[in-house]
Amino acid sequence: MKTICLSMAATLAAIAPLSAPAGEMVPYPEGYRDWTHAKSMVIQPGHPLESPFQGIHHIYVNDAAKKGLLNNSYGDGAVIVFDLLNYTEAEKSLREGSRKLIGVMHKDRSKYANTGGWGFEAFAGDSSSERIVDDGGAGCFGCHQQVDSLDYVFTKFRE
């Protein structure tokens, strides 16, 4: 699984505008910063997913995904967003920098049947249209299969 995750990381590292197959495109999560903030984390140098995921991650969930976080079962319409930002270190603090990407998981069992019912996408920087995922989410799903018992979701509410 680690090889698949690292392979996807290498793909995302290019941050190139690519398109998912027609009819399977995950929509941009308009207004996601008004959703529930589930948690934040920082990936630092030396982490296996450092490239391209080094940075500050803020995880947001819509109401449907919030319900799923409570019981590890997500209904269609659940959306999870990770907002990945560069950071700078100054005065013994990490400060948000420019946005690297917005990662999206969108639950729709019929539309994304080949990837556990989840559609996966990443949008480059501040763009709502420049897509990064070019394999229909297969690379993302390969990594998320590690948590199949949690409906393929790594995120949990901050404890």
From TrEMBL:
Gene3D superfamilies: Cytochrome P460. Residues 29-155 form the Cytochrome P460 domain. InterPro entries: Cytochrome_P460 (IPR032033), Cytochrome_P460_sp (IPR038142). Residues 1-22 form the signal peptide. It comes from the Bacteria. Keywords: Signal. The keyword Signal applies. This is Cytochrome P460 family protein.
